[in-house]
Structures are given as C-alpha cells and as structure tokens.
Amino acid sequence: MKIESVIILVNKMCGESNYTRAREIIFREWDRLTDSNNYNLLNKSAKEFIKIIKSERETGSFNSLSLSEKKILNLFNQYVRELNLDFAKRIYNDNSHLFEKKASQDWLNSEAKIFYDAWKRYKNTESNTEPKRSSI
C-alpha cells in the first residue's frame, strides 16, 4: 500500500476514534509512519496516538497483558460504568490476581479504579478480622 494511502487511512481511523483498526495499521506500517517526512503528514490525533503506542512499546506495558486479560479488564470497566456492580465484583473476585498487575491498573478507568481499591481494602480487612479457631 502506498504511504499516502496509509496516512489517509490512519488519519481517518483516528478521527473516527476507531483506534483498534488504527493500531493494526500503525503496527504494520510502523517504520514508514514514524519517518519524519511521513509523520508530519498525520493529523493531531494520529500523532498523539503514535506517541502513546511508542511509549507503550518502550515500557512494554501493552504486551504485558494477554488479549483475554485485556478483555476481562474492559468488561470490568464496562460493568462499573453501567453500575452493574454484582457482575463487576464477581469479575474482581474471580480475577483478583490480574488486578494486582501494574499493567492492569493502566487499563482501568477512574471509576473502576475506585471500586477496585474499595473491594481490595474490604477483602484485606475481611481476611485480617477472621475469628481464630482454638486448637483444643
């Protein structure tokens, strides 16, 4: 594909907030898009998106989670956003190890982080206040 077509497509996808498709194209055409001459032809949102992808590549945060883990975190975000807290708490309880990862925290939206922190604290205090059984 010609670079002009790639640039038009990335600009369009970023303008329409279709970041999944834009990310695929950017990964496939990374070397050509990050060339300074081609980079200058991108619109503002596409340039910002490439900066985000670059920082993810440098820190390795994007590849540290599997696709299924990302889906779980997105589902958690969705349930919290829709205030479907029973399902959100079930996801948290079933996948509490996933939420402890640093990369997972970057995938949670602000509302989801609040509920995650609350449920984590509750879980920790609950485990600390369990009655001790005597060994008689």
Mean pLDDT over the residues: 85
The biggest sheet amounts to: none
How much is the radius of gyration in Å?
21 Å
In what range is the share of β-strand residues? under 5%
Beginning-to-end CA distance, first to last residue:
77 Å
Low-confidence stretches: none
Alpha plus pi helix count: 10
Tell me the structural class: mainly alpha
Shape: elongated
Estimated helix fraction? over 70%
| Quaternary structure classification | single chain
- What is the H/E string? HHHHHHHHHH
According to DSSP, the number of beta strands is 0
Structural write-up:
With 136 residues, the chain is mostly helical. 74% of the residues lie in helices and 0% in strands. The chain contains 10 helices and no strands. The protein has helices at residues 3-15, 19-28, 30-33, 36-39, 44-59, 67-81, 85-94, 96-99, 102-107, 110-128. The longest helix has 19 residues, at 110-128. The mean pLDDT is 85.
Keywords:
mainly alpha; 136 residues
Which helices and strands appear, and what pairs or packs with what?
Elements: H1 3-15, H2 19-28, H3 30-33, H4 36-39, H5 44-59, H6 67-81, H7 85-94, H8 96-99, H9 102-107, H10 110-128
Question: What is the compact description of this entry?
Answer:
By secondary structure, this protein is mainly α.
